[in-house]
Amino acid sequence: MSRNEAISRIESYFDDGTFKTDLARRVAIRTESPIPKSRPQLYRYLIDEISPYLEAMGFNCEVFDNPSNDGGPFLVARRYESGNVPTVMTYGHGDVVRGYDEQWREGLNPWLVTEEGERWYGRGTADNKGQHTINLAAMKTVLETRGQLGFNVVALIETGEECGSPGLKDFCATHKELFEADVFIASDGPRLQPDIPTIFMGSRGVFNFTMTIRLRDGSHHSGNWGGLLANPGVMMAHALATIVDAKGQILVGAWKSKPMTNSVRQALAKLKVGGGDGSPEIDPEWGEPGMTAEEKVFGSNTFEIRALETGNPRNPVNAIPPSAVVHGHLRFVVGSDPEIFLPTLRAHLDDHGFDMVELEAEPDIMRATRLDPDHPWARWVVKSIEETSVHVVAVLPNLGGSLPNDVFADVLDLPTIWVPHSYAGCSQHAPNEHVLAPTCRDALRIMTGLWWDLGEPGTLAK
Fold first, then answer.
1. What is the DSSP string of 313-358?
2. Cα separation of 139 and 239, whole Å?
3. Contact call for residues 436 and 119 (beta carbons, < 8 A)
4. Which of 24, 170, 283, 391 is deepest in the core (most CB within 10 A)?
5. d(CA 230, CA 262)
């Protein structure tokens, strides 16, 4: 039995339709974690779908309730072979965002996998059911080919990632003994380009907060009161103009990212940002000046307005609104302290005369993490992937988006490697979410080779 035979078997798994069948079965389970009534489906996904699949591979599976009342259950699955082989921790999330069923294009259903050319549509195909389906199927193929994995595994599947992973940090901190491992290897997020194998070793953090101006109860006729009553929408616009300029540059000094290290800058210099067909065109003049596109999205902090409302946008009337609200957030890199974000914004707004703006931070903060691109495990993963792929691997010091990687890197103290199987134009979190079939097939090959290599004698960990 050989590495090439295992890769050939995983190719057949994709080509004969079994991968699509497995994925469709999982997509059909409506695991919408932002909807409280979907909680039974979260348990169903772990108990009826993933656990039997892993138990057939020799895993011991246990489903745990979440220590947070707002979070979904966790599945911890362990497979032990020997004390003399490496142990890998892997991860996935079985929950998805809301389906937004009525917003999908005609002919598409978020709970059915629909194939149109190279695109396979369905909620969770990209985020994250398709990605952990690829990793688990590749592991199963190595086991069937070699008769053993050659390494130990602990797998964690959560069901609250789309709500900010409530309870995940407390759960892992309380049960650290369950997650003793040598390395963390999992999949989420997009490749740099659809056809370019990619790894990243961390993620930007995310800090969400709300800005509110409340001036009075009720709206007042603009003809009678215009010019006499302060307009909170106008005031909020000017408050925002002190935070970020017209080209997206952050104006709050304490919010700016620290200078990049040479290793990070060198890694980013080898990359080319782009989401593939259907992705939006980059606005070259937007964001922090003097940075490349790659440095902006992977190496710096960015401020975004998630939502802004004053009055009634759906049914506007000729009146002065009583309030205005902005939901904003910062994506931030290693070296930024999220604990100072709100206090420094408070001081900044007060200095500019906007003491009437109320500030409130959301409780869950995903902190920034980054493993050095020269770390031995990162180099090992790159070498394995490049043995399988015809492409040079794109190495990102961290993902531009945010993941609960701080739990694995900081709480569990593991070197973390992510091998994403989606692409930036996949419409995750939006209607018409999809994966690309060629990317999935390539990812199955890559992960089969990686798991095979992990089980070979002389792997780093032991």
1. TTS--SEE-SEEEEEEEEEE-TT--GGGHHHHHHHHHHHTT-TT-E
2. 52
3. yes
4. 24
5. 50
Q: Do 396 and 369 meet the contact criterion of CB atoms below 8 Å apart? A: no
| Residue range(s) of every CATH 3.40.630.10 domain in the chain | 3-203+368-454
Q: Count how many residues are written for the chain.
A: 462
Tens digit of each residue's pLDDT (9 = 90 or more) over 78-109: 999 999 999 999 999 999 999 999 999 999 99
Domain boundaries for CATH 3.30.70.360 within the chain: 206-257+301-361
Taking the model in full, what pTM does it have? Answer: 0.87
Structure tokens at 432: 């018409």
Both tokens of residue 298?
Answer: 């992977």
Rounded to 5°, the CA angle 79-77-90 comes to: 85
Amino acid identity, position 295: E
Residue 276 pLDDT > 70:
no
Assigned CATH topology for domain 206-257+301-361: Alpha-Beta Plaits (3.30.70)
**Distance between CA atoms of residues 275 and 194, nearest Å:** 7
Task: Report the alpha-carbon distance of residue 437 to residue 120 in Å, rounded.
Answer: 7
Give me 343's structure tokens: 């206090």
Instruction: Just give the CATH number of 3-203+368-454.
Output: 3.40.630.10
User: What are the tokens at 127?
Assistant: 């985020």
